Amino acid sequence: MRSFRRAAAERPIPSPNIWHWPEVYERENEAQDADGALWAALRELAPWAGADVLDVGCGDGFHLPRFAAEAASVTGVEPYAPLVERARHRVGDTAAVLRAGAADLPLPDASVDLVHARTAYFFGPGCEPGLAEARRVLRPGGRIAIVDLDATVGPYGGWMRADIPHYDPVAVERFFEREGFALRRVATRWVFPDRETCESVLRIEFSPRVAARAVAETTGPALGVGYRLHVQRVGALSAP
User: Fold this and answer.
1) Model confidence over 154-206: pLDDT tens digits?
2) What DSSP character marks residue 207?
């Protein structure tokens, strides 16, 4: 089973946005959560000061320095080799970046306090192997914090549902509820430096048809985007 999982990790599910347009995706990351609402909710429900943090699906490491500023240690895990190299270049010796998938984490049992994943791998049913691994590497009382986009909130959520009609956001919420996660909805703003950057981001996030609709329905260089923060405290008897 271990060898099968390692083979699977070498063939990660493509993430066309950051894989093909990493520089545009960097501009997207810079624009997200302009008011810090998501980070504030994360700090409240899954604090990382003085903790050993694991960021699963860390991409090119954009969020690692934010954790490293306060955490005892930070490790990023990413299955796509070019992103691993970009992440290592970004963080230097302030964090470790390992090439691996969420279902086969290269960490010992009970070795971290927080497992964080943001819009990566944990999209609902089917992610049970990754949840099992997250729970394995957590110390008692540690937390899993999963950040995903809230497709029930417009305008961004409406474009998501148009682009992925089979995606059922309510079913995903029920899945995480059954798995023992608490849910916090977080309203955020994405604020871009100019209209051109905003449009370039929308075009890497959606199919051409839906991207054209999103561009037409967006006025100015900002838009509202809803998130869901799913948090579970491992070993806790109640939600955080």
Assistant:
1) 999 999 999 999 999 999 999 999 999 999 999 999 999 999 999 999 999 99
2) -
d(CA 10, CA 214): 34
Q: How far apart are CA 5 and CA 106, in angstroms?
A: 12
Mean pLDDT over 37-60 rounds to 98
**Relative orientation angle of helices 156-163 and 208-217, to the nearest 10 degrees:** 160
Please state, in angstroms and rounded to a whole number, the distance separating the CA atoms of residues 84 and 91: 11
Q: What six digits make up the tokens of 43?
A: 């700090």
Residue 189: strand pairing partners: 224
Say whether 118 sits in a helix, a strand or coil: strand
Q: Report residue 147's pLDDT band, with 50, 70 and 90 as the boundaries.
A: very high
Q: What are the φ/ψ torsions at residue 69 (nearest 5 degrees)?
A: -65, -25
- What's the per-residue H, E or C state across 139-171? EEEEEEEEEEECCCCCCHHHHHHHHCCCCCHHH
Burial of 121 (0-12, 13-18, 19+ CB in 10 A): buried
Domain 2-233 in this protein, CATH class: alpha beta
Q: What pTM value is reported for the model?
A: 0.92
User: What is the DSSP pairing of strand 138-149 with strand 222-233?
Assistant: antiparallel
Q: Residue 41, SS3? A: helix
